Each structure stands twice: as C-alpha cells, then as structure tokens.
TrEMBL record:
A single GO molecular function term of this UniProt record: lipid-linked peptidoglycan transporter activity
GO annotation, cellular component aspect: plasma membrane
Entry-linked InterPro entries: Lipid_II_flippase_MurJ/MviN, MurJ
Listed name of the protein: Putative peptidoglycan lipid II flippase
Pfam family, one: MurJ
Membrane topology recorded in Swiss-Prot or TrEMBL: Multi-pass membrane protein
Transmembrane segments: 7-34, 54-76, 88-111, 131-154, 166-185, 197-220, 241-262, 282-303, 324-346, 358-380, 392-413, 425-448, 460-481, 501-521
Main location: membrane
Cell compartments where the protein resides: Cell membrane
Length: 540
C-alpha cells in the first residue's frame, strides 16, 4: 500500500480508538451534568467550549492554513528546517501564554457574551464563569498540542497527533468515575454544585488536556527535530506568515461571531429542551465519521497535496483532489445513511432518558445534512491553503458565517412567533448551519475550478451522486431493522447499552447492504477502499 494508505490506516486506527474512548468520556459526563433541559450541563458545556473555540482558531485556522505549507517548504533548507521550527515553536508558545492570560482575566465578560442574559439566570452565569476559570487554561495546552501536532504531520509523523487524545480520554474517564463515586449524579440543578464539585470537574477536564500535550512531546525526536527555545524571530518569515494568517484570523473571527450568535440563540432553550450541551453531544456524534474518515484519509493527502502545489505540479494536485474526494465520498455516504437511520439509539447513548433521545435525535439528523459537503470542503479548502491562498477561503467562509448567524436569528424569531416549539429550536439552528455549509462548498468549488483551470469536477461529482443513490436502499434496509425492533420508541431506546447495541446492529446492516450494492455495480472505488479497510484487521 502507498505511504498515504499506511498513514491513513495509522491515523484512522488512532482516531477510532480516540473517538470510542471519547464517547465513553461523554457518556460519563452526561451522567454527571445531564443533557437535555440541564441548566448545569449547559453551564459546563458553555465553559468547556470556550477553550475549544480558541483551539479551533489555532488548529484549523492558522496552523493548517499557514504553518504546514511553510514547514514543508522549510524542509528544503540546509538544516532540514530545524531552525525555522524552533523559532516558530518559541513564538507560538509566547503567543499562547499571552492569549491564555487575557482569556482568564476576561472570563466573566466572555461567558456573558456567549449567553442571552434573559434566559441564563445570574446563578447559571456564575456557575458557567466558575467552570470557565478551571477550563480556560486549556487554551495554552490545546494550542501547544496543535502546534506540536501539525509540525509532526508536516514531517510525515502522523501517529502521535492522532493517538495522544486517547490519553486525555482515559484521564477524563477515570476522573469522572471518581467524581461519580464521590458525589453521584446526575446533577442538573445549579444549587447542587459546591466549589469542591466545580473544582474537581473543571480540573479533570483541563488535566486531561495537559497530559495529552505532554505525551506528544515524547514523540518529538521521531520527527528528527531538536526543540530549543529561540527568540531570534528575524528570518522566520513573520511578515509573510502574518500576511497569510491575517486572512485566516479574519475567517476565524467570522466563524466565532457566527458561533456566538448560535450560542446566544441556543441559550434561550436552556432548562426547557435541547440547548448548548445537547447540541455539543449531537455534534460529537456527527463528528465521529468525519474524524475517522475525513481526517484519517484527508490529512496525509493534504501533506502530499502541499508538496505537489509547492513544486508547481498542478496536474498532480488535481489528481489528488479527485482521488481524495471519491474515496472520502464512498465512506461518508455509508456513514451518513447509517447514522441517519440509527439517530435515536445513537443519541440515546448520551442521554439519561428515552424521551431525551427522541428530543435530541432531530439535532443529529439536521447536522448530517452537511456531512458529505463538509468532506468535499475539507479537500477544496485545503487546496487553497496548499497554494498559500487564505484570502479566498475567508471570502466564502464570510458567506457561510453570515448564513449561519442569519439562520440562527431566524430560528429564534420563528420560536418567538410560535412557528416552532422551544424543543425544536436547537434542531432548526443545526439545519441552518448545514444549509450554510452547503452554500459554502458550492462557492468554494466554483472558485477553485476557475483558479486551476478545471479540477475535473465531473470525475468526482458523478461518483458522489452514485454513492448517494446506493445509500437510499441501504438506509431503507436499516429502517426495516428499526421497525422490526419496535420502532424508535422500542427497546432500541431503552437505555444506553441497548442504544449502543442497536446503533451497531442498524449501522452494520446499512453498511453491508451499501457495500453489497457497490460490489454488484462493480464500483471502481470499492477495491482500494476494501484494501484500506483490511489494513485495520489483525494479520494471521
């Protein structure tokens, strides 16, 4: 198998273990703070999401867009890029420390910006602020982890960045278990939370990120680099990096403003239906196939694509685009069909009552609308990054961010006008986000197609349509299993264990039927995909 295939398997295997352990972590967290209509859960979800927002800025923004292509170029230097990486790492550490200090100082203001004060009572805001003081130090360690990980990825050392989060999940699972032994759960009411409980839960959440980052440092020498503090930043190309990162920062600001609007709208449903933490949990399930499939296959392709773009081999870049989208699309359509049919049992894993699963399942369905478009966007957007173009992604992200904010406000207006119920608010916001993402990927594809003189859209768009058609009978077979099991309100939503078993059963049937039809049609992408899948199986 090619180096991309081996790297994809390595990343995919690590991502699977990471996500499964992450699911267990989320299940235990739900047992502590609750999910649907949990005011304490929404308070913790808001506080713990703040450092994640900044991590998104660092990881998917500056690092992926700017740093990886620059490190690939620096590898051609006489020292293999060691001096560049040391300067870059030192600069990044200083910036992260400053950002973390500012975030800690501004914690009360940041929390109040993200919620609607008419719906978040003062005691709920106070609890969220207390959690934020414990969670915001994650900013530094998330950023350090992202910086180290992207440097390793650029050096084609893919494994550690993927496997290190497992340690975080293990630490969290153990910590949450201790919390449940000491205090029990769930504790959805604000008055139940003592300073000791707040400190323990927040400390566990942050402690896992700290250990995760320290583990990554162990693998540093595998990249052939020597990490040394270097404050001589002249010559590192800060002006060039700054020019590229400037558009990326603007793009991230757009995303954060849109997320802020969403958060304030979602806070209107706190205590009455799916709100902040329920949306986060649904997004976690949505991101499971995205992380396992898109990141494991797409990350090695991005490194190769960056190398081809740096060398000016545009035809090879186009080939990378076609191959990656077709392979990603085949897997993603199967995952979308399986999760859509199994939305209730899959959601039941993260809820404490069958009624909560039925209320949260529409959230997952609305997110799934954009799973395939986001997979395509992953490739298209990173192709712009490979050509050091961050201005264009800002432009089409500006459109997406505007649509996300507008649809969220429209959802709130619809609820106030009585057109939707408060229990439907979060799902409506999620659907608006999906529609915005579809518009974004269409605009991005059109621009890139013109920029490169054609990216052979027909060679990947038609196979995606074929995969989608095959997904319909596969989903129908899965729905037949749901009906045989008593429907969405049957035993499949009885408890967390039956939800997990039912989701696995339904998903297996959908995937089996999907692959069977592709085999009958002799789909050309099937054989290399199965070869990739066999790499995950133990050898005899």
């Amino acid at each position: 198998m090619s180096s991309i295939g081996r790297a994809s398997v390595l990343i995919g295997a690590g991502t699977i273990v990471s996500r499964v352990s992450g699911l267990l972590r989320t299940i235990m967290l739900a047992a502590i703070v609750g999910t649907v209509a949990s005011k304490a859960g929404d308070a913790f979800g808001l506080a713990n999401q703040l450092p994640n927002n900044i991590y998104t800025v660092i990881s998917t923004g500056v690092l992926t867009a700017v740093i990886v292509p620059q490190i690939v170029k620096a590898a051609a230097h006489a020292d293999g890029g060691r001096a560049f990486v040391s300067k870059l790492f030192t600069l990044g550490t200083v910036i992260l420390l400053a950002a973390t200090a500012l975030a800690m100082i501004a914690a009360p203001v940041i929390v109040q910006v993200y919620v609607n004060p008419d719906d978040f009572r003062p005691d709920q805001i106070a609890l969220a602020t207390a959690f934020a003081y414990w969670c915001l130090p994650q900013v530094f360690f998330y950023g350090l982890f992202a910086l180290l990980g992207e440097i390793l990825n650029a050096r084609r050392v893919f494994g550690p960045y993927t496997w290190a989060p497992i340690v975080n999940n293990v630490v969290s699972v153990i910590g949450f278990g201790v919390f449940l032994l000491l205090f029990g759960g769930p504790s959805p009411d604000i008055v139940q939370w003592t300073p000791t409980m707040i400190g323990l839960l927040g400390g566990i959440a942050t402690g896992g990120i700290v250990v995760q980052t320290l583990v990554l440092l162990v693998f540093w020498r595998r990249a052939g680099l020597q990490l040394r503090p270097d404050f001589h930043w002249r010559g590192v190309g800060l002006r060039h990096i700054g020019r590229l990162a400037g558009w990326t920062f603007l793009m991230v600001i757009v995303g954060q403003v849109a997320g802020l609007v969403q958060s304030r709208v979602l806070s209107e449903a706190t205590g009455d239906g799916p709100s902040i933490i329920a949306t986060q949990n649904a997004w976690l399930v949505f991101m499971l196939p995205y992380s396992i499939i898109v990141l494991s296959i797409g990350t090695p392709y991005f490194t190769q694509l960056s190398e081809h773009a740096a060398a000016g081999r545009d035809d090879e870049v186009k080939t990378d685009i076609v191959r990656s989208i077709r392979v990603l699309g085949m897997f993603i359509v199967a995952a979308t069909a399986a999760l859509a049919v199994a939305s209730v049992p899959a959601t039941r894993i993260f809820t404490n009552h069958p009624d909560e699963a039925l209320a949260a399942a529409p959230l997952l369905l609305c997110f799934l609308v954009c799973l395939l478009p986001l997979a395509v966007l992953f490739v298209i957007q990173r192709t712009f990054y490979a050509y050091n173009d961050t201005r264009t992604p800002f432009l089409f992200t500006l459109v997406q961010g505007g649509l996300v904010a507008a649809t969220a406000v429209a959802a709130a207006w619809s609820m106030d006008a009585g057109m939707i119920q408060v229990t439907q608010l979060a799902a409506t916001v999620a659907l608006g986000q999906s529609v915005a993402s579809i518009v974004q990927v269409i605009i991005a594809t059109v621009i890139l197609n013109r920029r490169l003189g054609g990216i052979r859209v027909g060679e990947w768009l038609l196979p995606l349509g074929r995969f989608a058609l095959v997904g319909i009978p596969a989903a129908a077979a899965g729905w037949g299993v749901v009906l045989l099991c008593g429907g969405p309100t049957g035993w499949i939503a009885g408890d967390k264990l039956t939800g997990a078993l039912a989701a696995a059963l339904i998903g297996s049937v959908v995937i089996a039927v999907y692959l069977g039809i592709l085999a009958l049609l002799r789909t050309p992408e099937l054989e290399p995909a199965l070869a990739l899948g066999r790499r995950f199986l133990p050898k005899r």
